[in-house]
Amino acid sequence: MEFWFDHIGQIWWASLSRETARYAVFAVATWALLWIALKTPLRGRKIREHSPAAGQLLLEFIVSLRSIAIFATVALAQSMMSRAGAYPLTHVALQWGRVWLWASLLLMILGHDAYFYWTHRAMHDRRLFKAFHRRHHRSQNPSPFTAYSFDLGEAAVMASFVVLWPFLVPTPWAVIPLFIVHQIVRNTLAHCGYELMPAMSDGRPLLDWLTTTTHHDLHHAQSDSNFGLYFTWWDRWMKTENPGYHTAFARAAFRADLARVGAPSAWRLGTVSIPRMALAGSDALSSVGLLCLQCFAGGFLFIVGGAFALTVIFA
Ligand SMILES: [Zn+2]
Ligand SMILES: [Zn+2]
């Protein structure tokens, strides 16, 4: 019994430090890269005209630290459960080799996407919204720091997935930090305020099965649609995708072109289709599209690499 409680203070503190470093590095890196360093070349890709006030960013950062304390507490509970032998499937997974390690990472991401969609939808029920999800939606115009700006209940629900999944699916422990890296990268990008996904010449996202920043930005703006996190399929299967999504995406992706040719005065989210003349000469390999492709790929790799380094340093 004593063994279960050995070093619990150190384990909690190590988990807290690791998660705080990961969140701070990703949120600050995304903010510094997009909102400061690339602000001028990416101005045509900014989704909203106005940026949130500095006070909102600071509050989101502080609230996120509270969420991280919940994550660390849940991680400590999982560590104690592991000591008690509650995760036999993690040993099974180790015997299935390296291919299974990557396959189980993919499965975990797919599983989390479904878990997020359904728990997120449940938290939008008016009986649960106030207690679980209101804090996150106070950021009506999100920023990279909104990623972990949760009420206590939502933070606990989000952290519980990592506790539950290895119970159900053979998953090596080494997969968990890789899963968390993917989660924070996608989460931060979803709230970054700039549309970095390159657009096809018809105005649709290059990878339309992935959620984009515009997809989640619309959720913050209207909150009755676009509940998905990584992929668009749950919203499409359940018919909860915002009907104005593709128009809003095209408007964000081609804002510079629309401004150049003059958008129609009736241009409003979801009310008109993309004017063909505005798109003439714009395609996925236009200079801004190429820059966005490079930002998306380079930023993703930079953040994943940084996260991986942090994971190694703090492991
Ligand atoms: Zn959000
Ligand atoms: Zn929501």
Describe this structure in words.
Mean pLDDT is 83; it is low at 264-285. This protein starts with 7 loop residues before the first helix and ends with a helix. It has one domain (2-314). It is mainly α and 315 residues long. The chain has helices at 8-37, 54-83, 88-94, 97-123, 126-132, 134-137, 152-168, 175-190, 213-222, 233-237, 245-253, 255-261, 276-279, 287-314. The protein binds zinc ion (2 copies).
Quick structural gist:
The chain is 64% helix and 0% strand. It has 315 residues and is mainly alpha-helical. About 7% of the residues have low confidence.
Topology (elements, then pairings):
Layout: H1 8-37, H2 54-83, H3 88-94, H4 97-123, H5 126-132, H6 134-137, H7 152-168, H8 175-190, H9 213-222, H10 233-237, H11 245-253, H12 255-261, H13 276-279, H14 287-314
Bound molecules: zinc ion (2 copies).
Residues 120, 124, 133, 137, 219, 223 line the site of one zinc ion.
Structural class: mainly alpha
Are any ligands bound, and if so which? Answer: zinc ion
Q: Spell out the helices and strands N to C.
A: HHHHHHHHHHHHHH
Q: Indicate the overall shape.
A: globular
Q: Roughly what is the average pLDDT, rounded to an integer?
A: 83
Q: Note the quaternary state here.
A: single chain
Helix content: 55-70%
Record field, number of beta strands: 0
Unreliable segments of 5+ consecutive residues: 264-285
Number of domains: 1
Please state the CA-atom Rg, rounded to the nearest Å: 20 Å
The biggest beta sheet, please? Answer: none
What's the number of helices? 14
